[in-house]
UniProtKB/TrEMBL annotation:
This is S-adenosylmethionine:tRNA ribosyltransferase-isomerase. One of its GO terms (cellular component) is cytoplasm. SUPFAM superfamilies: QueA-like (SSF111337). It is found in: Cytoplasm. Monomer. Belongs to the QueA family. Gene3D superfamilies: QueA-like.
Length: 343
């Protein structure tokens, strides 16, 4: 399909630079079949049914954005995929000044060797020393806010908490699973009281999620892989919930991608621990999920293609037009939607 079929006009003032407070006070657009309804995130217990299960991504964002020097050349690096205990693949700013074998000094006693340049222009960075890389990043790194926020304001202390979900446990992401940023202990307690289940999986979100689709046709676009995991126990509980009539609702496109990667052709969710580069676009047959909670995505992005696959492209273009006209806030710190396709 042509990528420009997924384009729409978004006013710059609709891009949220800070989250609302409290988090569950954000707007929520219910898209249920052909119906649109304006609600707030706190209404979720009333919009879901007892027996439904929400699936959260428990990844934790690490301070994966680094700035250093190779000689007198200033080099920026955003880690996006762990390769082993000391090596990460990273997108590089000022990559023309970097060659294989060069040493980058990031300050605070943190340095890495640029081992290998990849076809997409990224590098493998091998960190020096014996300290855990996470400890090195805590000294020299900063939170890797999306470019549409970082280009408009400085990253600050608030982002250290604002850009983590309440479920964050397993370190390794360089982007937050932002749909879950809206959840609070009070909202979770209300969902529990309503009889709505809750499960977690892991997808360490990479910086590739922010990259624009440069191809003119979706068939020419290649996704970056990310590592995900579903435990055997979680898979069993999810399958049992579905067999009993409950709906599986992914909280965020990251959770959805792992669930769909783990499902077999009959929709049974299997244990999973592997990389996934699944690209969901119109024509895809969903197997594992019955709905999705997600923020509002960029024009011509793979994530807007994903929600179009779930609900229909025309339906989502209309929903986004409604959201823009109704002053919903877009992107990572923005408002939310609940997408429930027709059976």
């Amino acid at each position: 399909m042509r990528v420009d079929l997924f384009d729409f006009e978004l006013p710059q003032d609709r891009i949220a630079l800070r989250p609302v407070a409290p988090r569950d006070a954000a707007k929520l657009l219910l898209v249920e079949g052909e119906r649109l309804q304006d609600r707030i995130v706190r209404d979720l217990p009333d919009l879901l049914e007892p027996g439904d299960v929400l699936v959260f991504n428990d990844t934790r964002v690490i301070p994966a954005k680094l700035t250093g020097y190779r000689g007198d050349a200033r080099i920026g690096a955003t880690l996006h995929k762990r390769l082993d205990l000391r090596r990460w693949q990273a997108f590089i700013r000022n990559a023309k000044r970097l060659r294989e074998g060069d040493r980058i000094d990031f300050g605070s006693g943190v340095a890495a060797i640029a081992e290998e340049r990849h076809d997409d222009g990224s590098f493998t960075l091998a960190f020096e020393g014996e300290e855990p890389v996470e400890l090195l990043l805590s000294r020299a790194g900063e939170m890797p806010l999306p470019p549409y926020i970082a280009s408009k304001r400085a990253i600050d202390e608030r982002d250290l908490s604002d850009y983590q979900t309440m479920f964050a446990a397993n370190e390794g992401a360089v982007a937050a699973p932002t749909a879950a940023l809206h959840f609070t202990p009070e909202l979770v307690a209300a969902l529990d009281e309503r009889g709505i289940g809750r499960e977690t999986l892991t997808l360490h979100v990479g910086a590739g999620t922010f990259l624009p689709v440069k191809a003119e046709d979706t068939d020419e676009h290649r996704m970056h892989s990310e590592w995900g995991q579903i435990s055997p126990e979680t898979a069993v509980r999810l399958n049992e919930a579905r067999q009993q009539g409950g709906r599986i609702i992914g909280v965020g496109t990251t959770s959805l991608r792992v669930l769909e990667s783990a499902a077999d052709q009959d929709g049974t969710i299997l244990p999973f621990a592997a990389d996934t580069d699944i690209f969901i676009k119109p024509g895809y047959r969903f197997r594992a999920i019955d709905g999705l909670i997600t923020n509002f995505h960029l024009p011509k992005s793979t994530l807007f293609m994903l929600v179009s696959a779930l609900m229909g492209r025309e339906r989502m273009l209309a929903a986004y037009a409604h959201a823009i006209a109704s002053h919903y806030r877009f992107y990572s710190y923005g408002d939310s939607s609940l997408l429930l396709p027709e059976k």
